[in-house]
Structure formats: C-alpha cells, structure tokens
Amino acid sequence: MPLKPIPLSTLKYSTHHIPSHSLLPNTTTHPLYIYHRSFPPGTSPSAIESHLSTMGVVTPVWRYTMYRQTHYHSTSHELLCIYQGSAKLCFGGEENPKRVETVVGEGDVVVVPAGLGHRLLEDLTGDEKDGFMMVGSYPKGCSWDMCYGKEGEEEKARKAGEVKWFDRDPVYGDEGPVLGTGGEEIKGSTL
Gene3D superfamilies, from UniProt (predicted)? Predict the structure, then answer.
C-alpha cells in the first residue's frame, strides 16, 4: 500500500524568513518551510523515497544526518524528510542574531530554499546507531553544490536567489504550503 502523508487539511507548518548575514544569503526569495508531522512516525526511508518519486517533483538522493558545519546550496533547494530520531537544527548561521534554531523529529519535512545556511546543532536521539536520519532530495533537473559562506562565494550567493521555485509541492502535489495553499500555518519563534 503506498504511503500517504497526513491529509493536507490537517497539516500544520511553519515558515521562517531569515535575513542575509555575513556571507550567507539565507532566505533571499522564499522562506524556510517546516511541515510538522507530515508522515506518520515509524515511516521507513524506502516508503518516503517511493512517495517522493511518485510525486515527481524531487529526486531522493541520500540517507544521512545533517552536517555539523553551516553550509548552503546555491544551485538547488533541498527537501529533508526526517525518518529517525530528533535533532536541534540551526538555520541562517549560528552568529546571525535572526537565526532560527528548532527541533525536528520523525515525520517532519523541511524545505530549505537555495542559499539558506543550515547545520546540525545537536542530535537529541543520543544513540549514534539509531540517531537522527533524513532522506535528502533535490528538485528534478537540479544539481546541488556545497557553499560555506566564505569569501570567493559571492557570485554563488547572488545566484541562489535565482533558483526556480517549485511548480508543485514535493510532498502534496498540486496543493501544499510551498504553493501557498493548504495546511495551517502556525506562528511563533523557535529560538
């Protein structure tokens, strides 16, 4: 039986606009999206990958945790589907006074727009074998790069804001938060 995310009518999500800081472009044109409990806890990475492939918006590429060094992608947005554990993540650069620090866990989906600095602050699972893990995906036709907000990356930082946004929601299809339809946005700071 194919995996189905929770109904869009019951999805709760949050968005965060994070200003540029130092050499991190951050949310230049689109916010960070966090879909809270989009998939049922215990959903396997294979089931998530199959669902994403069926939607046809992104290509699942890896299963891993998040790097502990702040980095961003200038050529692609990134979709992160948490399938194991929980973690505290930082978006926008740890020195940025307007950064977002938030805890995510099983079933959550994070849409990281091109240019947004992100890193793992702490794996809250406490077990390396069964620690925090995600399925990482990128929009079809995009190749991703690694940038670190360092000198010499200024042109890449500028181009991050030009990456084409989604025509369909990667989890829900023709409707969904990244398209401005469906779900309930919850407000509030996570710092």
Answer: Jelly Rolls
**Segments of 72-145 assigned E as strands:** 78-84, 86-91, 100-105, 109-112, 118-123, 133-139
d(CA 64, CA 132): 8
Q: Are 11 and 138 in contact (CB under 8 A)?
A: no
Sheet containing 32-36: give its strands across: 58-64, 133-139, 78-84, 109-112, 32-36, 12-16, 184-185
Using alpha carbons, select from 8, 27, 25 the residue that is nearest to residue 17.
27
Is residue 191 very low, low, confident or very high in pLDDT (cuts 50, 70, 90)?
Answer: very low
Do residues 106 and 42 lie in contact, with contact meaning Cβ atoms separated by under 8 Å?
Answer: yes
How many whole angstroms separate alpha carbon 110 and alpha carbon 137? 11
Q: Does domain 13-164 correspond to CATH entry 3.40.710.10?
A: no
How many helices (H) does the chain have, and how many strands (E)?
A: 2, 10
Which helix (H) or strand (E) element contains residue 155? helix 154-160
Taking residue 132's Cβ as centre, other Cβ atoms within 10 Å add up to 26
Q: How far is the C-alpha of 36 from the C-alpha of 21, rounded, in Å? A: 27
Q: Quote the percentage of the chain above a pLDDT of 70.
A: 96
DSSP 164: P
